[in-house]
Specification:
Shape of chain B: globular
CATH superfamily of the largest domain in chain B: Clc chloride channel
Distance between the termini of chain B: 33 Å
Number of domains of chain A: 1
Largest interface: A-B, 24 and 19 residues
Strand order of the largest sheet of chain B: 1-2-3
CATH topology of chain A: Mannitol-specific EII, Chain A
Structural class of chain B: mainly alpha
Order of helices and strands of chain B: HHHHHHHHHHHHHHHHHHHHHEHEEHHEEH
Largest sheet of chain A: 5 strands, mixed
CATH architecture of the largest domain in chain B: Orthogonal Bundle
Oligomer: heterodimer
CATH superfamily of chain A: Mannitol-specific EII, Chain A
Shape of chain A: globular
CATH topology of the largest domain in chain B: Clc chloride channel
Number of strands of chain A: 5
Structural class of chain A: alpha/beta
Largest sheet of chain B: 3 strands, mixed
Number of domains of chain B: 3
CATH architecture of chain A: 3-Layer(aba) Sandwich
Radius of gyration of chain B: 29 Å
Distance between the termini of chain A: 4 Å
Amino acid sequence: MQLGQFLDREHVILDIQSQERFASLEEIIERVTTDGYLRNKVKALDELIEREQLATTAVGGGIAIPHVFTDEANRPLLVMARSKAGVAFESLDGNPVHLIFVALAPRKDKDLFINILYHLARFLKVKENFDDLLEAEEVTDVLAVMARAKDNLLSEKLKRLVKDEVYPYRLPGTTTSS
Amino acid sequence: MKPSASAGVVRSLRNRLLGFFRRYQLSDQTFLIIVAVIVGFLGGLGSIFFEWMIEFGQHFFFDIFPRLVGNPKWLVIIIPAFGAVFLAPLIYFFPVEAKSDGVPATMQAVALKGGIIKVRTFITRMLASAITLGSGGSAGKEGPIIQIGASIGSAVGQFFKVSGERMRVLVGCGAAAGLAAIFNAPIAGVLFALEVVLGEFNLHSFSPIVISSVVATAVSRAWLVDGAALKLPPYELFSYWEIGFYAILGIAAGVVSVCFTKALHGAEKLFERHAPVKTHWQPILGGLVVGMIGFVFPQILGCAYTPILEAIQGNFLWHTLLALLGLKIIATAFTLGSGGSGGILYPCLFMGAALGGILGYAFNILAPGIAPAAGGYALVGMGAVLGAAVQAPMAAIMMGFELTSSYSVILPLMTACVLATVVHRRLMHHSIYTQALIDRGIDISAGREMGILTTLTVGDVMIRQVPKIPGNLPYKEVLRLCLKGQGNYLYTTDERDNLEGVISFQDLKEFVYDDQLQNLVYARDLANRDVVYVTPDETLASSLNKFSYIDMEELPVVVRNDGNPRLEGIITRSELMRIYRKEMLKRVMIGQ
């Protein structure tokens, strides 16, 4: 089970229009295909914004990982948005954000979700990965970069706890399997 | 005799008797049976004395007093209120013992206090009930005599220093003795004591209660003035098709019983919240209402069995019966709701007879070939309303059987009683007695265990030290607290201590220790926002309920403050169980 599995090809926005923090979140959530992923987009957006108001998720280096546990999400999922111009995200280092990864997951997947956030943050902080994502021409290129994240999200202990048969995190549009 | 001297006599008598029991090495059961004879005998005497007091009261209020003031016709309006004036000092000095019905109090004593009843209960109850009933208050003498018998049983038990289970049995003996003696119905007395007062059937308590009931009935038959007890005409079933009509009667009886229960507790609440005068003056207001009703329908006054007999004999027209049914409910609700002392058994019988009379009349018109007389319906209706209201169908069936002394009444009675009981239960969860206890926050329907848990509140046992953290505490800090802390939960609060969520470490099966999550994950991210909580005034029973449907080891205790849930403490499952065991042990220790 790897990072790329949570990013549907439909959920890659190569050029986001909004240049403001909450407007960009709205644009991203609007993009999510509802069937199977989210129950209620409006509620999910509200929860995401409420979380963002607690503290910014723009951790610096042009990256933002807005995330929230929400029972509006049926399964853990990522949505990627890219902005060449940059979004003003009140980031910790004060710079505009170029890559936004929205992460949503239901509460029961707390462990897995924390692992996703951890691996995602680590993956994006590698300069090569960040640059390649920024320069990818097509959605398939983006997915190819994400496929480089080979670390298995689940430790042996977690694997035992999360049974794949019960909850296969295989999304449409992804090719890799765990 | 000085108190010390009388105490000395009591002590020496007890020692002699206990020495006697020891010398013959009596078994526990034999001892109980001997004591049950004593309780039965005293219970029988108590009932005779009580009967005599009520008669004296009636004589005073309805003969002597009217003669003194020149016997005006309207006097009956103020007689119940005048009687209530005498009640005021009793209620003022003994507010708990003197008011309303004694059966719930007895049930409570059995369920929660190991059967210990104060001796003064018995004297206060006798006086208060004799005043209320003697002055025409609409209530029964059976409830008080059950409590009087029960306190006699408890007093005898305390004299012999018995404890625990045996004390409860003796209280049951006393209750059975009282009811058996006053109704002249020993089997009904036994069943009532088992079904209602003790709330359980077992062989251990059965024999002493039967003995006590038999002795009390014999005593009252030997000495009680004839005609004081209810004697019903024999009963005959004309056609087996009538069973269908009796089923309808049963359903109607269940509805009447629910109406009566609601009216009674409604009146209690009305006086409690909106009465313009203090508690001890309230019966005067109730008495005025009863007096006004009694001016038009004197049948609803007091506890005489004559109106019931007349209803069975068909001496009333159906609209009179309908008026009597409605007015009896109102009069009884006002008598008891305002604080008058009396029971609800007799009013139930009265309502049942009136209802049966009405329906019997209707059935007679509909199908004269099948239901030729209304009397039988009145008779069965009595048992049905009673069985439904007190939720004791067996006692009601046996009572009807004993009062009519005819076996053929059994089929209609069983049909109507059981249906009425079921209908009552469907419409409201509690009997007229347990509802009275519920109003005071005591739930004994779930047994003694729940009794303990309902008398203690969350506020009594909550732990005030709560591991609370702000919502913006970074992930690493949360982990550090979690590994260091004692409990398995952290509570996130806002700056005014309002509960936002709870972090359960069982959710975090594996922790990630890495700086990558710095500035990305905070306490609020991890917290569960749908928190089940309890409030300090909630009972332990209710919090145990909440524990049972959520899988948590502790619950936050929250005070609602302008709609904001302020976190005050926590209550843990283990602490709850520890206190429960401690209380249980304490009660057993007092018992043994």
